[in-house]
Amino acid sequence: QVQTIEVGYRGAIGGKLYLDLNVYYRIYKNFIGDIRVVQPEGSAKAGEESGEDAILTNSPDNATYTVYQLPMNATQNVASYGGTAGIVYYFSNKYSASANYTYADLNTDNLSDDIIPGFNTPNHKINVGVKGRKVVKTLGFSLNYQWVDNYTWQSTFGIGPVSSYRILDAQLSYEF
C-alpha cells in the first residue's frame, strides 16, 4: 500500500523552451522486502548451537548450508522520494537539444526490520541529447549521452555493486 504526493510543472516557455519538473514523496505501508535465512546441512541441526557453529565456522561437520530468501512485509513504514528536471530547447522545427536529471532514494534509516528492500535504482541519472528531424528530406538523427550513478543491486539471486556507467546512443532515422 502506497500513499504518494507529487507536485510538478510541465509546459512551454516562450514557444521554444519546454520544461518538465516534478518531485514526489511516497510512504509504503506493509512494504515488501526479503529476508534471508540459513539452514545447516549434514550432522548439525538448525536452531541448535551445533548448527550455528557449523555455519559460523564452516566446520567439517557441516561444510555446506542452504540459504533461503523469503518475502516479508516491513513492520515500519518505508519512504521513497525523488524528482526529475527536464528541459528541451527547440532551435527550429528540425533541431532540438534536451537534458534531464533524475534523483531517487529509498529511506531505510529508521527501518529496524532486517529486510532486503530490492530498490535497485541509482540515486542519480543524467541524460543529454540532440535531435534532428527531416534534416535532409526524410533523414533524421538522434544522439543521446546518459550517465548513471553506481548503486547496489539486491535480488533473490544475489546482492552486489553496479558500477557507474555511461552510454552514448546514436540513431539515424528515415521516414517512409
Estimate the mean pLDDT confidence: 87
Strand order of the largest sheet: 1-2-5-6-7-8-11
Strand content: over 45%
* Topology, number of strands: 11
What Rg do the Cα atoms give?
24 Å
Q: Which overall shape is indicated by the principal axes computed on the Cα atoms?
A: elongated
Biggest sheet features? 7 strands, antiparallel
Structure class: mainly beta
The helical percent reads under 10%
Low-pLDDT residue spans: none
Element string (H = helix, E = strand): EEEHEEEEEEEE
Number of helices: 1
Task: Note down, in words, how this protein is organized.
- The chain is mostly beta strands and 176 residues long.
- Helix content is 5%, strand content 63%.
- The protein is built from 1 helix and 11 strands.
- The chain has one helix spanning 49-57, and strands spanning 2-13, 17-28, 32-40, 65-73, 78-90, 95-107, 124-136, 139-148, 151-155, 158-162, 165-174.
- The strands form 3 sheets. The chain has a 7-stranded antiparallel β-sheet, with no helix packed on it.
- β9 and β10 (158-162) form a beta hairpin.
- The protein is elongated and about 75 Å long.
- The two termini are 47 Å apart.
In short:
The chain has 176 residues and is mainly beta. The chain has one helix at 49-57; strands spanning 2-13, 17-28, 32-40, 65-73, 78-90, 95-107, 124-136, 139-148, 151-155, 158-162, 165-174.
Topology (SSEs and partners):
Elements: E1 2-13, E2 17-28, E3 32-40, H1 49-57, E4 65-73, E5 78-90, E6 95-107, E7 124-136, E8 139-148, E9 151-155, E10 158-162, E11 165-174
Antiparallel strand pairs: 1-2, 2-5, 3-4, 5-6, 6-7, 7-8, 8-11, 9-10
